[in-house]
Design brief:
It is a single chain. The protein is α+β, with helices and mostly antiparallel strands. The protein has 2 helices and 4 strands; from the N terminus they run H-E-E-E-E-H. It has one domain. The strands form 2 sheets. It has a two-stranded antiparallel sheet. Strands 3-4 form a two-stranded antiparallel ribbon. The two termini are about 30 Å apart.
């Protein structure tokens, strides 16, 4: 394990959590996006993270894939909506706001934890450099 591997591992965690935050924010932003019933609803996005060189103490994490939910959504009766079909129905994404808020909090806490590790490691490396100046 190298001297600065801590920074690399935490930086990979920051990147993964940032992508998770981006996916959740897209899901929340599009929760009320209506489409006509002959189109797919907005597809909820999920991020799948994967360990790199697990168990070696090196490597960190990476985003393996971005997966998408169902485009089927939920059909709602809104006859005054300009996108409504002849029967008055529109399609909305089937996204649970409570679940997305929980995902947002977890991603934010993970981001903060990795940022804290980077901050502490940087301060430790700076203190070690000061030892030689004495």
């Amino acid at each position: 394990m190298g001297v600065f591997d801590t920074l690399g591992i935490s930086a990979s965690g920051l990147l993964a959590h940032r992508k998770w935050l981006d996916a959740v924010s897209d899901n929340i932003a599009n929760i009320n996006t209506a489409t006509s019933t002959n189109q797919s609803a907005f597809k909820e996005r999920y991020i799948e993270a994967q360990a790199v060189d697990y168990g070696s103490g090196e490597g960190g994490v990476r985003v393996a894939t971005a997966q998408f939910g169902s485009g089927q959504g939920r059909v709602v009766y809104e006859p005054k909506n300009p996108l409504a079909d002849k029967n008055g129905y529109v399609r909305y994404p089937d996204i649970d706001l409570g679940d997305q808020m929980a995902q947002l909090i977890m991603a934010q806490r993970g981001y903060q934890a990795n940022l804290s590790v980077i901050d502490r490691a940087t301060k430790t490396y700076q203190a070690a450099l000061q030892l030689g100046k004495g």
